[in-house]
């Protein structure tokens, strides 16, 4: 048997990588759909169930709170049981919770079910993306991770489009059918993961080198072995405390803060889109088509970011994304009372420019931490970002009523500029680096 001298980081893309991309990317589509469909269903649900402002806020933020809690232990779960077993948790929870939401009239039960959905999303972020980066060659890793964010916003756009169709064709129970509609994506996600393999890198950390070797040869060919895995020779067993003491605390803070600043305005808008657009004097057809148009511009922004990630590099793209999207929010707050078209232009500009930061949310935590810490970084990053988003989302109705839409947009701009400062101070460049190189402290 002839052994290749090439690193698996430089191996060609093969059918296994394509299937893995589909299996992991489907979760981003589901995430965007399931977190956004609540914004569509909430108006009719509020009327049907006579929800108070408190329960509107709790239900709108329930999944985000679940993601926060799930992120706290998802890293441990992924490291303890492996990536392959854990990636089946989310599809099963999505299916069960979507069915149960259809039959309940209790705000508390809806809150708990969506809280459980959030737990599953957090677990999947940690397990699925770790599995993905530990298999996919570096040439394709950044753009494909960035592409998952496109799928997130595609799922969000689908939620608004199909949710609106469902509500207009299902009578008074439209909100129930809307909340149950993720079942279709959930079945696809479950089926796409049936032939998933365990991460060879994770197996090595568990002293299961023989299994790791078998998987490497199955995925890359018989001329590859553990010798072609860059981390193998230099890898050392480190505890989480050791990692933080060596300087990874700064990187964890960077990921948590920039991710939080990138998602707070986005989730606040998606959870209360009708209220936000109404406050900006966009109603009727303007609100309906405006929501879809803005969501599609988020998708366009992510597509552009995906194309630029290996051209501009991670650091430069993050800085420019925060700068121009923050200025767009500043303009939106300044001219909040302008015509519908002016409002849509600034809102659309924000959606377009924030795409760069959005696509880096899955890239940075998966590239700048070693194998042992990668799932923890993903878990804590998504946890911190979602608790910030949950707080921001919960406060949106209060902010709109107390200080108005203009000042609310100024606060959103301030959050975005905090992300800009953190990006300038701490964002590293990982373009074209192996996972071992990108995770190394310099």
From TrEMBL:
Membrane-topology descriptor: Multi-pass membrane protein
Keywords: Membrane, Transmembrane, Transmembrane helix, Transport
Lineage: superkingdom: Bacteria
Annotated localization: Membrane
Record bears the keyword rRNA-binding: no
Pfam families per record: Sugar_tr
Transmembrane segments: 20-42, 54-74, 86-103, 109-133, 145-162, 174-191, 252-273, 285-305, 317-336, 342-364, 376-396, 408-427
InterPro entries per the UniProt record, alphabetical: MFS_dom, MFS_sugar_transport-like, MFS_trans_sf
Domain (Major facilitator superfamily (MFS) profile) ranges: 20-431
Gene3D superfamilies: MFS general substrate transporter like domains
Family: Belongs to the major facilitator superfamily. Sugar transporter (TC 2.A.1.1) family.
Official protein name in the record: MFS transporter
């Amino acid at each position: 048997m002839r052994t290749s001298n090439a690193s698996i980081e430089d191996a060609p893309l093969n059918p296994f990588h394509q299937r893995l991309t589909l299996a992991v990317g489907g979760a981003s589509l589901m995430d965007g759909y399931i977190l956004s469909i609540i914004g569509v269903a909430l108006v009719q649900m509020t009327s049907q169930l006579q929800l108070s402002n408190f329960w509107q806020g709790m239900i709108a933020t329930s999944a985000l709170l679940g993601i926060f809690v799930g992120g706290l232990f998802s890293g441990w779960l992924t490291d303890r049981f492996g990536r392959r077993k854990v990636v089946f948790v989310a599809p099963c929870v999505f299916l069960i919770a979507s069915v149960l939401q259809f039959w309940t009239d209790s705000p508390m039960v809806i809150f708990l079910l969506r809280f459980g959905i959030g737990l599953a999303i957090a677990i999947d972020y940690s397990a699925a993306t770790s599995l993905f980066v530990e298999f996919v060659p570096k040439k394709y890793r950044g753009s494909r991770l960035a592409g998952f964010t496109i799928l997130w916003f595609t799922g969000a756009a689908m939620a608004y489009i199909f949710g609106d169709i469902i509500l207009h064709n299902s009578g008074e129970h439209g909100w129930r059918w809307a909340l149950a509609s993720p079942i279709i994506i959930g079945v696809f996600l479950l089926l796409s993961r049936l032939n998933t393999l365990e991460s060879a890198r994770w197996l090595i950390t568990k002293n299961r080198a023989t299994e790791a070797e078998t998987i490497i040869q199955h995925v890359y060919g018989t001329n590859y072995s553990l010798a072609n895995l860059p981390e193998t020779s230099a890898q050392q067993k480190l505890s989480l405390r050791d990692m933080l003491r060596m300087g990874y605390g700064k990187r964890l803070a960077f990921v948590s803060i920039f991710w939080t600043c990138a998602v707070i305005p986005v989730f606040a808008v998606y959870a209360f889109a009708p209220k936000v657009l109404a406050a900006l004097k966009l109603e009727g057809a303007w609100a309906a088509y405006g929501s879809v148009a803005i969501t599609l511009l988020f998708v366009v922004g992510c597509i552009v970011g995906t194309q630029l990630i290996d051209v501009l590099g991670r650091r430069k793209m993050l800085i420019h994304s925060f700068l121009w999207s923050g200025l767009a929010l500043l303009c939106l707050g300044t001219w909040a009372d302008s015509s519908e078209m002016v409002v849509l232009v600034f809102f659309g500009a924000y959606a377009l420019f924030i795409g760069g930061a959005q696509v880096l949310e899955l890239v940075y935590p998966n590239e700048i931490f070693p194998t042992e810490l990668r799932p923890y970084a993903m878990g804590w990053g998504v946890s911190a970002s979602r608790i910030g988003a949950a707080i921001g989302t919960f406060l949106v109705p209060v902010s709109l009523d107390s200080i108005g839409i203009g000042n609310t947009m100024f606060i959103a701009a301030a959050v975005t500029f905090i992300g800009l400062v953190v990006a300038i101070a701490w964002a590293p460049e990982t373009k074209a680096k192996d996972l071992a190189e990108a995770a190394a402290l310099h």
